[in-house]
């Protein structure tokens, strides 16, 4: 069984990531190692390495492997970085980041998801991760500034606190758009100001919070 998952994982890396142009060998190797199926409920595990997002409860999703790879590669991690992640969800993307950077600070607004993610990450031995239950649109001021920031939910704008908490030279990846469809933006802080580029269209669940969207049932 373990070998079946490993085979499916290596096939995912070749057919979904390498084939679509993901090149960073560290990202490919991390995604070849992290057991994605363990971040997903047992009934859906046989679909863990498929080319799609999957439900993780609370009306939230674990992102498609290619989107995880694309966002992670664009962060240009070398190993020494302190990274802020907004939207822990299942904890899978957090684990990929933990393989590639020094310290990961991850924020999730839904306590049930944060607790489950903490448990899985600890059981897999990740010691360089802290998960906080909070509105991530305000960032994690006490631990700032960050070399890289990854937002894994769709936002109406780049939340100003996140921009403030990004180091000069730092990179932020964030889907910006409406509640259902967005454009993945790469925001780089340079001495001359803030640069933005658009990577691809994408579909993320909404970023809910003070600098995000209002909760639908609020
Ligand atoms: N990266 C995750 C994974 O690997 O499973 C998937 C993240 S899911 C697409 C987006 C997550 O963002 C959801 O778990 C949602 O609850 C969370 N979220 C939405 N708004 C948030 C906010 N203001 N602060 C923190 N988390 C938020």
Question: Explain this structure to me?
Answer:
- The protein has 218 residues and is of the alpha/beta class.
- It has a domain at 53-202: Vaccinia Virus protein VP39 (Rossmann fold).
- It has six helices and nine strands.
- The protein has helices spanning 2-17, 25-33, 65-74, 92-100, 111-123, 160-164; strands spanning 54-57, 60-62, 82-86, 103-108, 129-133, 146-151, 166-177, 182-190, 193-202.
- A seven-stranded mixed sheet has the order 5-4-3-6-7-8-9.
- The longest helix has 16 residues, at 2-17.
- The chain is globular and about 50 Å long.
- The termini are far apart.
- The model has no long low-confidence stretch (mean pLDDT 97).
- S-adenosylmethionine binds next to strand 2, helix 4 and strand 4.
By DSSP (H or I, 4+ residues per run), the number of helices equals 6
Fourth-tier CATH superfamily name of the domain at 53-202? Vaccinia Virus protein VP39
Give the distinct bound molecules: S-adenosylmethionine
Strand order of the largest sheet: 5-4-3-6-7-8-9
The top level CATH class name of the domain at 53-202: Alpha Beta
Q: From the structure provided, what is the oligomeric state, counting identical versus distinct chains?
A: single chain
The CATH topology of the domain at 53-202 is: Rossmann fold
């Amino acid at each position: 069984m373990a070998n079946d998952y490993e085979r499916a994982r290596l096939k995912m890396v070749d057919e979904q990531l390498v084939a679509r142009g993901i090149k960073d060998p560290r990202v490919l190797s991390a995604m070849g190692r992290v057991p994605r199926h363990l971040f997903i409920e047992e009934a859906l595990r046989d679909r863990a390495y498929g080319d799609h997002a999957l439900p993780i409860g609370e009306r939230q999703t674990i992102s498609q492997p290619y989107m995880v790879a694309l966002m992670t590669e664009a962060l240009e991690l070398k190993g020494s970085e302190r990274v802020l992640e907004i939207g822990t969800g299942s904890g899978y993307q957090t684990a990929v980041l933990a393989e590639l950077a020094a310290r990961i600070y991850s924020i999730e607004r839904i306590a049930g998801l944060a607790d489950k993610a903490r448990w899985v990450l600890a059981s897999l031995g990740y010691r360089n991760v802290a998960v906080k239950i909070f509105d991530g649109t305000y960032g994690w001021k006490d631990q700032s500034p960050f070399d890289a920031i990854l937002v894994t939910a769709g936002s109406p704008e780049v939340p100003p606190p996140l921009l403030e908490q990004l180091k000069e030279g730092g990179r932020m990846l964030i889907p910006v758009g409406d509640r259902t469809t967005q454009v993945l933006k790469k925001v780089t802080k340079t001495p001359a100001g803030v640069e933005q580029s658009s990577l691809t269209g994408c579909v993320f669940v909404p970023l809910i919070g003070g600098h995000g969207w209002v909760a639908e049932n609020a």
